[in-house]
Amino acid sequence: MANIDVINLQGETVGSVELDDAIFGVEVKPHLHWEVVRWQRAKTRAGTHLVKTKSERSGTGAKPYRQKGTGNARQGSRRSVQFVGGGRVHGPQPRDYSFSVNKKARRAALRSVLSQRFAENKLVVVKAFDLETPKTKQLNAVLGVIGARNAVLVGDSSNENLRLSARNLQGVETLNAEGLNVYSVLGHDKLVISEAALKDIERRLA
């Protein structure tokens, strides 16, 4: 098993922890990253796009001109698609973009991206995010010390001070161990995990 230093919020090394090779030492598989990120983004699409068809356009139902004698092609409605202001043919309608990716692949992708961050030395383990009060300025200073201005911060779900402190920091996202996901990890330069959250992640992915 590989070891990684554990630091405090002042950037000082206060210990080390062993990382499970089955989670932080597996082969990196970019195609799994792509598949899971595509799945995550598809799930968040609203799919509320809509264009009006001929039957939904407002306007008269009368013929625009008589059937014969004008020299023009016969027309039945001003709401037809060939007229300005008419309906649209085969336009987008509300739909669900989500699809399924099996749980085994999702877990494998998360192990892969965690292994990638560790191999790139972009994984930071802190003893705890022990912020006494929600202070954005204080957290920003901490992130500057540990070199993680653009990062995902993973703590426990009860740490409300961390969430409140980080919500106005650009490039910073906070998650709990259960919410850790491939898209968030790949979207930031660093992954910062508390020691308690690290144990939860290893328990989840073991």
Question: Can you tag this structure with a few keywords?
Answer:
206 residues; alpha/beta; Ribosomal Protein L4, Chain: A; 7 helices
Let me know the average pLDDT.
94
Within the largest sheet, what's the order of strands?
2-1-3-6-4-5
Shape: elongated
Class of secondary structure makeup: alpha/beta
The top level CATH class name of the largest domain: Alpha Beta
First-to-last CA distance: 14 Å
Q: Per CATH, which architecture of the largest domain?
A: 3-Layer(aba) Sandwich
Largest sheet: 6 strands, mixed
Over the alpha carbons, how many angstroms does the gyration radius reach?
27 Å
Low-confidence stretches: none
CATH superfamily of the largest domain: Ribosomal protein L4/L1
Q: What is the helix content?
A: 25-40%
Secondary-structure element sequence? EEHHHEHEHEHEH
Q: Helical segment tally?
A: 7
Number of domains: 2
Strand element count? 6
Tell me the CATH topology of the largest domain: Ribosomal Protein L4, Chain: A
Strand content: 15-25%
Account of the 3D structure:
It is a single chain. This protein is α/β, with parallel strands linked by helices and 206 residues long. The two termini are 14 Å apart. It folds into two domains: 2-46 and 99-205, Ribosomal Protein L4, Chain: A; 51-91, no CATH class. Helices cover 34% and strands 16% of the residues. The longest helix has 17 residues, at 103-119. The chain is built from seven helices and six strands, in the order E-E-H-H-H-E-H-E-H-E-H-E-H. Helix 2 packs across helix 3 and helix 4 crosses helix 5. It has a six-stranded mixed beta sheet with strand order 2-1-3-6-4-5, with helices on both faces.
